[in-house]
Specification:
Protein name: Synaptogyrin 4
Number of helices: 3
Distance between the termini: 36 Å
Organism: Saimiri boliviensis boliviensis
Structural class: mainly alpha
Order of helices and strands: HHH
Keywords: Membrane, Transmembrane, Transmembrane helix
Shape: elongated
Oligomer: single chain
InterPro entries: Synaptogyrin (IPR016579)
């Protein structure tokens, strides 16, 4: 029998679940912002802004993925 109440699967730790939901929401908003900026990239004239935009895109998209690649440390 399942409860109609939400249940956190991260060791029943509500803080961990709240963090995961918050991180996912921020990632979604960042994705939307970069989607809008990508569509307007041809209208951006300043090379400094374009370089900063590409660097920020790299940091927010690639670095977290590379950090998670090796996996958690073994105990």
């Amino acid at each position: 029998v399942e409860s109609p109440q939400l249940h956190c699967i991260l060791n029943s730790n509500n803080v961990a679940c709240s963090f995961a939901v918050g991180a996912g929401f921020l990632a979604f908003l960042t994705c939307l912002a970069f989607l809008v900026l990508d569509t307007q990239e041809t209208h951006v004239a300043g090379t400094r802004f374009r370089t900063a935009f590409q660097l920020l895109d790299f940091v927010l998209a690639d670095i977290p993925g590379l950090l998670g690649f090796p996996g958690p440390p073994k105990r």
